Amino acid sequence: SYRAEGTFAELKSEALARSDYTQDKSPAAKFRQTQAFRFNLSIGLGLIFLILFLFYIRSKRRNAVPYKPNNLRSFRQRQDHYFHELPTEANLLMLYACDCFKRSKRHDYQLLGAYILRWIKMRNVRIFTIADDDLEYFQILNPELKTESLSERMWWNLICDGLDPILPIEIKKLHLKIVIAFDQVNKLKEQIPEDYYTYAYALSLIVPDDKNQNPAHPSYKLSDQGGALYQKILGFKRYLKDYTLLSERQLPDLELWDDYLIAATCLGVADKFAKRLLKIQPDYNFSSNDLNPLNMVSLMRSLQLVNEISESGSHTAAHRSAHGVSASLGGGSGFSGGGSGGGIR
Predict the structure, then answer these.
(1) pLDDT at res. 317
(2) Are strands 136-140 and 206-208 parallel, antiparallel or unpaired?
(3) Distance separating alpha carbons of residues 330 and 188, to the nearest angstrom
(4) Among candidates 327, 333, 188, 341, which has minimal Cα distance to 258?
(5) Type and span of the H or E element at 108
(6) DSSP code of residue 317
């Protein structure tokens, strides 16, 4: 083995002599080093910004709202316009579609959360806790789901396929099941706009815009009937947000509150509506059971995480995030309770 001999200064000089390192400390050398550092830094920052920009564009495309009508400005409203009743001609798909049209961005977890609450109300499933157990459980009560929406059917199949109708499953495990179902989540997200367009087009709420037709990029507009429904839904959303600002005589009957809570979830104002609702009726529980409406926020957060994971675009990210969901949710979702019959469509 080689053994170096000599003082530190001698060894240092010998090492430098055999390397490409230069001890040139002249102003010209310092200038070259500074310029090289600035060049490398600018290249690195440029690449970072390019990657972030590409991710932004990709996210915008994934969250774009297909079939958005181009005449929404024709149906503008004052911010103090309220519609005090749930529009009877609007199902959950149209509520969600109009909210997307207004915000020009999709938040699919709102619709998915509304679907789950609808299942609880229709007694297809229940979410509950067991005495002396801090965990929450999900159980299928009736496997025969009545729906005309393909996206709701896909969501049902994603959650319930493989589950024993008799044995409940921990909410935490159900979250992991959803997160890992990467391909199914993406297909579900693609189906949602197709569903609301099919429904709206069949009822002539959305029609082709003959003035601006490009076969490659067709455009659409709201019909007069569709515009009137759009205004009702936005007015109803304001009503849900400002619930406690209204007089007692304007409040709906108690049996309608469940439907209103489902609609508020679909419109993205469930947390605000639930807080205002509990100020008026502190003993209210969703579907006349022990499901506190404020606890829906945890479900919405988990569904939002599923939505973000599906936008990541990789199976690896989905599987890694599954462990993150398990850690962040801890014992469960914060739900308890069951369900009863009835129905918003």
Answers:
(1) 45
(2) unpaired
(3) 27
(4) 341
(5) helix 108-121
(6) H
Provide the token pair at 55. 């991710």
> According to the model, what pLDDT value does residue 146 have?
93
Pairing relation of β-strands 136-140 and 220-222? Answer: unpaired
What number of helices (H) and strands (E) belong to the chain? 12, 5
Strand segments (E) across 181-248: 206-208, 220-222
Give the DSSP H/E element, type plus range, for residue 195. Answer: helix 182-202
pLDDT tens-digit profile of 120-148?
999 999 888 777 777 788 899 999 999 98
Q: Closest Cα to residue 279, out of 237, 300, 251? A: 251
> How many Cα atoms sit within 13 Å of 105 on the Cβ side?
6
Helix axes 108-121, 296-312, angle to 10 degrees: 140
Decide: 140 and 165 in contact? Cβ < 8 Å: yes
What is the Cα–Cα distance from 38 to 44, expressed in whole angstroms? 10
Q: Which amino acid is at 327?
A: A
- Size (the chain), residues: 345
For the chain, residues with pLDDT lower than 70 are 1-6, 8, 11-26, 29-32, 51-64, 212-216, 243-254, 288-292, 294-345
CA separation for the pair 161, 71 (Å, rounded)? 41
Give the count of beta carbons closer than 10 Å to the beta carbon of residue 152: 26
